[in-house]
Structures are given as structure tokens and as C-alpha cells.
# Entry
Amino acid sequence: MEFFRIRRDIPFMRHALVFNIISALTFLAAVFFLVTRGLNFSIEFTGGTAVEATYAQSANLERLRGVVGGLGYGDVQVQNYGTSHDVIIRVPTKGGIDQKKVPDRVFGALCAAESGSISSADPTRPTCVNAAKTEPVVMKRSELVGPSVGDELMRNGAYAMISVVIGIMLYLAFRFEWKFSIAAIVANLHDVVIILGFFAFFQWEFSLSVLAGVLAVLGYSVNESVVIFDRIRETFRVLRKLSTMQVIDHAITSTISRTIITHFCTQMMVLSMLIFGGPTLHYFAMALTIGICFGIYSSVFVAAAIAMWLGVKREDLIRATKAEIDPNDPNAGAVV
Amino acid sequence: MNRYPVWKFVLMVLAVLIGALYTVPNLYGNAPAVQVSAAKLTTKVGPDTATQVQQLLAAASISADYVTFEGTSVHARFANPDVQIHARDVINAGLNAGADKDSPPYSVSLALVPRAPVWMGKWLHAKPMYLGLDLRGGVHFLLQVDLKAALDKKTEGLVTDTRTLLRQKQLRTVVARDGNAVTMTFHDAAIATQAFNVLTDAFPDVQWNQATEGTDVKVSGALKPAALVKAQEAAIKQNMTTLANRVAGLGTSEPVIQQQGPDRIVVELPGIQDTAKAQELLGRTATLEFHLVDETAQGNAAAEGTGPVPFGDDRYENSPDVGRRHGGFTVVKKDVIASGDDLTDAQANFDQQNQGSIVILNLNAKGALNMREVSGQNVGKLLAIVLFEKGKGQAISVATIQSELGDRFNITGMPTAEQANDLALLLRSGALAAPMEIIEQTAIGPSLGADNIAKGLHSVAWGFVAILVFMCAYYLLFGMFSTLSLGVNLLLLVAVLSWIQTTLTLPGIAAIALTLGMAIDANVLVNERIREELRGGSAPQTAIAVGYERAWATILDSNITTLIAGLSLLAFGSGPVRGFAIVHCLGILTSMFSAVFFSRGLVNLWYGRQKKLKSVLIGQVWKGGSKPGSTDADAAEPAKTPGAAR
# Structure
């Protein structure tokens, strides 16, 4: 099998401007949604309480909203989680509430609504038993985060992001050249902003694992750009007659099959997580999927183009070392 | 050119063998076991308890796989749940024989322990990964320790100590507290200097200063930064000890109590989902009370159980260390001289003068005042310290009052240093060094945990299969080499994670999946490079060598950028993100070994010896060729593909 039978270099850079405009537009749209809608942060960031329960029958969300709303916790969110039997109830932090009691009170209310009562027959967990001695609703998980933890996570998340950006920029500047370093980081931050834009637009829950996914994908797409930059450097060294634009086109063309196959393989793994991973990994896999798709786009069409606009030259990459000696140069060799 | 020296092949085999050895314990699953831990502060569980359990089992002719003491509890593993339940009953009846049913000294509970062979864990340190709460169910608490309060307490103690010392030395002044400092003013500079010297000698942990204010001299002192850090560390440590004691009574297997950051403590209780009960347990304070012993005839009779307890008295059981005096009971007067809240510190020490172990107690001002008054009137009488747990009191020390006691006094004549240590620990465990507050709490049901394991494993398995099928179809034999080395990567990653005993969480499993998905990149790079070399007309052996060599630089670069992201997450992440980051970083390292060194070894093994190699099975190599920089016009120019010149 050979998917990519490319007869000659594809003139990617001839259309660089078009791609950059598309990028800029998507980027602006993402920023727009981030500003207007904002991210739907999980309670890990905002603080609050979440209770996940599973029902023997499909859960009636409308009724549950009434039940939980009656507890006086303010703006309570009730949603399905995974299947129609599972619900998640999120209670924001609010002054005057003993947060520690919230999970038990919510579960108590859910249980009472199913005309059951909380029993402590099982010493390890509170169970809800109804008249027929069955469990109409089971508490699967509860989570409680104080408001101070959220601020700290937000700050640490920002630090992590900044240190990734600085670390990668320094490494690329050292290994290649500052123009590449800027190009790679701009291209890949644009991916990150677009992922965040998706989360803002659809109001998907932005949790800690999504943040981990976003940062992992940042490292991953940079590695994409690195592969292309590596090839650009090599092409500059070996094919000395080409113009910068031709060199970039050649580098992208000769790595495109690898780029697509690698992303395809990674995406298969992520798809597997999306299908089998359940609700906990859902948005993590979602962030990775968007990151991988836009990662291809940005590495191929954006990073190299930015490097080109920045005016990358052969001399930037090949210092006057051995590589400078052209084996085909008749005048090369012994010099007195 | 494509040959490995023998040692490299040996290294490959060794890597796989060692990887397999450390991965295997994860596959065994869990076996039923019985766990014995202390249910009361005064109960001690140690190697002796293990011997005791062994004897009990032997007497009932129950065979256990092993009985070991580790950490704070004894585990005995059994072949099946029936034996387990029988053994639990036997051990419970044996250890808690004759004890009060409501507060038995030992907690004997059912537990699960790894089924992996014992020798693996013992000799090779090969143990299964610890499963995080999201995979096994349980409650997790993050507690914020109020270190400012601990500091307050410490400063308060310093004020009292200073006051006492100056009074002893007859240096008259008023000692006051100013924030975290102790201040006092003297009218006479000479006395001030004298006080300064006395204080500097007595409290080396405190930075003392003298300053002239008009005609007066002000002496002030505050804890040195090093001492401050030490005090805070001690506070956290004491809180952790106290928590460990409280949790021990629950009988949960493998509770985790760890410090996180400078002022936080993580408590994880696997297998428990009842948060209300757990909260109550964590908040449970054992309280201490100081009482006078009723030494009248009626009192003694009551202690021995031959008479009624006199009005205004209470009867408490003695702890084992106090001994069987009066039938193992002590009758005390109801009046509380001082309580656990008044006790600021208790330390075991060695008394040089009397050549014996002692316990030094510090009381706060209020406690000291009362103690001074009562002890002064009762020199020669007995003082009892009673520890209350779950509403039941126990006399943990009965000692004769030798003289008037103040804010700082000793319990002397402890038989052994160990007993002195135990008593000090018990006294301290009565209270927390600093108040704590729950700032994060998660409870996960056991069914959700099992569900999460299944989901995680399915994600990894099906993703792996998909990659395997694709790689083998697209790159044929080289695809097989690639997937084999990806398999080795998984093996090594799990082995390393097991070896360093990481806690596996669902994000951790996701990281394994993602790392595998990303690690295939290195193989794709190599395979594509080899194809490219072949396309350029290289001989197969050259193509393999050049392909690997060229791809290496790229693989290194791209992995380093991914590693930078992983390390940042590790540095700034906490909780689940940290688990993700650890797996991610390790996975990048193992992937470099497997994708480059290992897969090359496989290729060398297969093709390396064939001198006249005509073709390699790497899938179809389309020779239409990419002409570098070509346009339609100069397509005729001969290609000069990188590497073709070799």
C-alpha cells in the first residue's frame, strides 16, 4: 500500500497567504467565542459540589431539577452523564451553606423523591432503599472542591501553559533558529486557542484532564512542526539551488505522508478513547481530536508560512561549518 | 552495516524479560485477605501481632499464604473468600477476646491484597501498581492545615515559658505578646541585658533583640526562620500522625495519608464511600483529662470492683502500660485539673540526673494555673491522665506528684524509652497541632471504579489493535516490527510504572493510550524514511541504515518538545494531572528506546545477515519519485535525493 504518490512538490507556499487568512479568521472566531461565551469550567476550577447518581430507570431530568432546586442551593445544574440512567448534579459554592453536607443532602433528596429512605445497612456507603427493598438510585460519585483550590488550579494551569511555551521556544531557538521558534509557537498556540474556542462555543465542560490534553497536544503539534523544520534544514543543506519557497514546499511534500499517517494512528487511539472511554474521558478525547486535526493544518500550512514571512534563509540554518563545503564545487578542497 | 553486536541483542532480551517480570504482578489481580489494625490509640500493632495471628490461625488449622506486618497493620492472605471469612472470625475472637464489644482494641477486617507471588514483591520489588481511587472506589479528602494557628499556639507557649523563666531568675517585668513576637520592657539597662542573656541561653531557637526606648530598654524575641519552618513541619507531621491514628480505627485497607505542598494533607480511604462517616472520623478528637486519683479506702475498693464507685468519682480501665494495679482500674475524682486543649506539647526525653526515661509536658497558662494550685495542695498524691476515645476513658498514666507542678513538668520513672515515646505520642494524639479544614472531597463508588478500569483498558486495547492492523497492512513486515516495538514500549512503560509504584488513575490510563498513539510516530518516521531512501534508489541495506540514522535526529527533536510539555505539567499539575504527566513523560522515554533501539534490533536480526539483500518488505514503494523543486519545465533534471549519493 502506498497512499501518497506525489509526482512533484506541492506548491503549498504559493497559497500561504490564503491559508494564513483562513487561520486568522478561525483564530478570531475562537477568540470571539472565548470572550463572549467564556469557558464552562468544571467544579475543579470554580469550586462547588458535584453528585453523580445512577437510576434503575431512565432519569427524569425535569423532575430532578424541581427536587434539587427545592434544597435552596441556588443555580443547580442537572444533566445526563453518559447514559440516560446517569445524572450529574452540580451545585455552585454559595455563602452560608455547609458544603460538606451538600452531597448527602442532595442524595437524600433524590432518594426521598423516589420514595425511598437512606439506610446505613452497608457500613461503607449510604444506600437508598425503597419499600420493595430495591435501590431506585445509587450514588456513584460525589466531589467537593473549596473555592480556594480552584483559584490555585487556574493559576497553576496558566503557569504550566507559559512554561511549556517558553520551554519549547527556547529549545527551538537553540536547536534551529528564532524565526522557527516563533513560527512554531504561533502556529501551535493558534491550535490551542481554537481548541478552547470549540469548548467555549459548545460550552463543553473544561476540566483538569482537558487542560492536560490541551498541553499534551501542544507538545505534540510542535513536534509536528519540528519534523518539517528538520526537513527544511536538511533540504537547504542538500539541495542548494532551490529558493526558500521551493525548499519549504519540498520539505512539506516529502514529510506529508508521514504527517498524515502519524496523525491518523494517534487519532485512532484517541477515537478508541472517545468510543470506549466513557464520559470521564469524553472531553479529553474531544480536545485531542480537535488538536490533532488542527495540528496537521497548522504545522503544514501555518508554521512554515510564518517562518517564510519572517524571512528564513539558508544562512540562518547552516552555519559556516563543514556543511558549507559543496562537494560539487570544483574549487573546493585544498586551500592555501 | 545493519548488525548489532551480541551485547545489544542481550540488552534487548534483558529489557523484555525485566519488563515482563515487573509487568506480570499487575495481571494477577487480588486475593482475599484479613487485615488487623489498631482500633484504639493504646493498642499497638507490630511484628508480635503477626506472630499472634499466625498462632491463632495455626490453632484453628487455617493455612494462610502469608502473614506479614507492614506499616501499621498485619495482613494475612488466603486462598479463597470462605477461608478468609472463617479466618476473620477466628482472628477477631482470638485478639479481641474478653474485650468490650463496642470498643475492641483491634480492628479485624476483610481486605484485598495483590495475588502476585510473594517472592516477586520480596526479592524483586515487583509489585502491582497501586490503583487510584477513581479505579477502585473510596473517599479522598484534601485538608488545609491552618499553620498560622499552629504558630499562634507556639508563640503563646513561648510567652508562658519566658514569663516562668524570668520569674525564676527574679527579673521583674511584664511579658506581652506582640503578633508573633514576645516583648518585655525593663527600666534598668543592666537587668535588661541580664534578661537578654538568660533568654538567649534558654531559647536558642528564638532571635532576641534589645532596643532602647527613651529611658526604658525593650527586649523582644521571635522564632528564627529555621525554627519557624521546623515548627510548621512538626505541626503538619503531628496532624498526620493524629489522622493516621483516627483512620486506623476504621480498618480500611491501605489508607493513604500524605503531605501535599507545604500546608496540605491528602487522606484517601479506599473502599469507603460514606463521606459523612469519614468526616466524623477525621474530625474525631481524642480528649485528654488530668484527674486526681481517689486513694481513699472506698476509692480503692471501687477500683478493685469490690465496692460501689463513690459519689463524685469515675472509674476507668488502665492502659496496658499502667499495669494491673488495683485490678487494672483506676478511680479518679471527677474534677478536671486540665484537659487536652491545655496541653501544648508532650515529648519523650532522657533524664541525665536520674538515668531514666521521662515525658515532658507543657501546659498553657490556664492549665498551668489550675495545675499549680491543685498539685501544690496534693503533693505525694497520685495524678492520673485519662484518654477518651469514642466516649470511653482509659487511664494512660498514673504518677505520684512530687512537688508543685506548673506549666512544664515531667513524668519520670518510665520503665523504657519506648514506653516514654508511646505515652508522649498518646498525649500528643489527643489534639491536633493546628486546626484543619476539608477543601476537597471526592467519593467514588466501587462500581464506578470497576467501570473506569474496563473503560480505560478497552480504550488502550482497541486503539492498539487498530494501530497494529493499520501498520501491518501499510508497512507489512516493517509494520510488524513497529507494532512489536510498540508492544515492548507498553511493556516497559507498565514495568517502570509498577517499579516506581505510581498510583494508576483513569487519566493515567488515558496517558498510556495517548503515549502509545504518539510513540508510533517514531516508527512511522523511520519507515517513511526507509521508503524514501529506497525510492531514491538506495540499496535495501543502505536504505535501512540511512533511514534509521536520519530519522533519529528528528525523533529526538520531536520527543524533546513533547517532553517539555510533559515536564511542565508535572511541575505545575496536581492530582489527576500529575498522574497523567508522569505516565506521559516516562512513556516518551521508553518510546525512544523501543522505537529506535529495539525496532532496529528486530530489523537487524531479520535482514542484517543477508549480504545480497534484493528487497525489503516495507510495503509498496512507488518509484514515480518526488522531484525536488521540480516544476513541469525542469522535470527532466535527474533527481538528487538526499542520501542517494552514499
Remarks:
- The domain at 12-42+149-319 of chain A is CATH 1.20.1640.10 (Multidrug efflux transporter AcrB transmembrane fold).
